[in-house]
Amino acid sequence: MNAPMNAAAPGNGPNYAFWLIWILPASAVLASFASLYFALHGGDVPLPTAYHWEGHALDSDQARQEQARHLGIAVLLQFDAVDGQCRLRLQGDSPAELRVDLAHPTIVADDQHWVMKKDGDGYHAPCSALPKAHWWVQIADPAGRWQLRGRFLSDFRSAPVYLTADAKAG
To answer: Is the dihedral of CA 40, 51, 150, 117 positive or negative?
Structure first.
């Protein structure tokens, strides 16, 4: 039988293979240039110069966390954005002051460090509002015998931070 007269002959229709051969590699090249641009203009901040030494301090940190567990240390940290004060209640040891370090997860310039003075049955220090982030908090006695670490979401509308030595950080 004869083929219908209006059937397209090979080579007369659109040639998709030709376009795929050129468009796919061209898009990969363009994507690599876009990746290069983002890496050069929006990359992460450099690591601190002493970054490689931080691993050696982990054993000491674990020992201080264990000491806090042994002493029964627990902390309730509250932020009051109205009067610009941070208040801390401590169960267990009772030094004259405490060191509080708040580390922003990505921006080192937003990190905050406070020395909280004992005032009656708790501790207080002036503080400012924190940007909303998953903050790392470390509370330690000034002698370096114990420490507590944890993580909390802060936008000053969240609940107070409660830390114990048994709680897992993060």
So the answer is: negative
**Residue in the block written with tokens 């050129």:** 22
What is the C-alpha to C-alpha distance for residues 55 and 144, in angstroms, rounded to an integer?
18
Q: Which residues contact 57 (CB under 8 A, 6 or more apart)?
A: none
Determine how β-strand 97-103 pairs with β-strand 112-119.
antiparallel
Helix (H, G, I), strand (E, B) or coil at 164: strand
Task: Note if the pTM is more than 0.70.
Answer: no
H/E run at residue 27 = helix 16-41
pLDDT computed for residue 62 by the predictor: 80
Query: Is the distance from CB of 145 to CB of 95 less than 8 angstroms?
Result: no
**CATH at residue 129:** 2.60.40
Q: For residue 144, what pLDDT is reported?
A: 86
Counted domains in the chain: 1
Q: Is the dihedral of CA 119, 123, 126, 129 positive or negative?
A: negative
Residues forming a β-bridge with 100: 114, 139
DSSP-based three-state secondary structure for 68? helix
What is the rounded distance in angstroms from the CA atom of residue 90 to the CA atom of residue 141? 11
Determine, yes or no, domain membership for 138: yes
Residues of the chain with pLDDT under 50: 169-170
